[in-house]
Amino acid sequence: MRNTLIGNFNEFVNFTNVTSFANTEFLRSTLSAIKIPDSLLYLGNWSGDGVFGYTHLKEFDAKNAVRANNGTFAYCALLSEVKAKHLKNTTATFRNCPKLNRLILPSLTNNTNASIGNGGSMLQSSGVKMCDIGSNLVYLADYFDYGTSSCVVVIRSKSFTINKNAFRSSIRVYCTSEMYSYLTNSTNNARPGIVYEIGSEDWVSRYGSADPYANLTQEEYDYYYKDIVEQG
What we know:
Blueprint: E1 8-9, E2 20-21, E3 33-34, E4 42-43, E5 59-62, E6 67-68, E7 81-84, E8 102-105, E9 110-111, E10 130-133, E11 139-140, E12 152-155, E13 161-162, E14 172-175, H1 177-185, E15 195-197, H2 201-207, H3 218-230
Parallel strand pairs: 1-3, 2-4, 4-6, 5-7, 7-8, 8-10, 9-11, 10-12, 11-13, 12-14, 14-15
């Protein structure tokens, strides 16, 4: 697309027959805002750069999008928040997004093929401060958080595995009690000292409540997590 005239495309929410974005759909455009229709299910590969790569996009909220592929948001210099309810497998999705503050990914299943030599990890060199991953996670590849420097990762899954150096740069990782022993003893985690339990004293002092959803606003919880939790 590479349109240099469109900055705000909130009218896109009315395009309810659109189910996917092609690769590099908005690459290097001046897009700064977009509202996603519930019909959108797939965000394409990057083929060098992502669907929204190098745009001016600041926030992205896709309730029903099921997959953001390689580098979908790579090099979005202004992107600060992403909420994607059904986002699944990812590779280099948020690479080099320096202002990224918050990720809410309640249905993420895998961070795949994350070797730095093969395009980089999901969060490589991003500025993400909070990455909230839900209960469906099954696997984190190597270097998941490479170069994030100040990220707090919250993982609510009760059963998942990690590859070597999965947690290389995060300042803290919060996990369920079921995963605490695994994450603190696995040879694939070279930094067991950054792992804490959700609901622990450290969690309470940081977020003010033992409620495992304390770091989410009530609105965020209702929108992104309530139905998942109630359905088990």
